[in-house]
Amino acid sequence: MFLRRVIVAGGAAASALLTAAVVGKVGDDSNTSIGSWPPVCTGRWDRNWDRREPMSLINLSKVKGDTEEELKRQLKKYEARARRHIFLIRHGQYNLDGKTDAECVLTPLGREQADLTGQRLAHLGYDYTKMVYSTLTRAKETSKIIGKYLKGVPTSSSDLLQEGAPIRPDPPAQWKPEFMYYEDGPRIESAFREYIHRADYEQDEDSYEILVCHDNVIRYIVCRALQVAPDAWLRMSLHHGSITELLIHHNGNVSLRSLGDAGYMPVKCLSR
Ligand SMILES: *[C@@H]1O[C@H](CO)[C@@H](O)[C@H](O)[C@H]1NC(C)=O
Ligand SMILES: *[C@@H]1O[C@H](CO)[C@@H](O)[C@H](O)[C@H]1NC(C)=O
Ligand SMILES: *[C@@H]1O[C@H](CO)[C@@H](O)[C@H](O)[C@H]1NC(C)=O
User: Fold this and answer.
1) Residue spans of the chain under pLDDT 70
2) Domain locations in the chain?
3) Phi, psi of 244 (to 5 degrees)
4) What pTM was estimated for this model as a whole?
5) Whose atoms come closest to the Cα of 24: which ligand?
6) pLDDT attached to residue 13
7) Class of domain 84-269 (CATH, top level)
């Protein structure tokens, strides 16, 4: 909106904009404190939440010639054209008695849940772009089972998606020492920044991306994507194997299309 005002106002304002850019004031339209750790939630929608508003992708000192026209041209160029559909899958039920990660394997029910979720994703019929799974055993196993139904979908792993303590929840739950949030929080925030953002301006077509990960990671990501208070994450609860879908529109608007959907599973297969 800031920019539209500038462009409508014409050349003089455009050069005022350039001056503002040089002294670093262009970010005024977004709340830069949202990029800080821990994330600040203002209650207002920050359109530049992912730092991919076209205005953020331009070095204004390089806008030459008829400034207004050139600026419009560049803003058009850097606008995302596609939408991203992100499917966040919680792993299936696993052995809670495991001492090491290798022992935290899926239970027979957990494998069945993963199987049902794989079938569900296949039935949805999207042309999946990729699947990324957390490197913890239970997520790895879940993605392997899902992969049986999604042949040919490029698959990779990421340590960023591992389970952890994203931020001290409000209202408080089981007490944990601060260092756990201190260590895990920024890493889970990195996962959010890495995987949740509007499409790259070079992306031509809508993408359908699957992230196989964990309860806390998914709940934190949902809060961050919707720009609600991140410490609200523990107020939600997800079924094992469930599907949470976020849609990121080309202009950065975000819709939560489903949260922890497991309605396709028979009741006897439901667990949390
Ligand atoms: C940005 O967030 C801070 C902290 O919540 C708030 O005080 C400030 O008013 C916000 N600025 C804008 C431009 O929204
Ligand atoms: C932006 O572009 C100008 C002109 O080409 C250049 O001198 C300047 O270093 C660039 N700014 C940054 C932060 O790279
Ligand atoms: C999405 O964002 C634009 C501003 O970029 C706004 O005008 C529009 O109403 C929003 N749409 C929805 C559905 O939130």
Assistant:
1) 1-35
2) 2-77, 84-269
3) -115, 125
4) 0.85
5) 2
6) 42
7) alpha beta
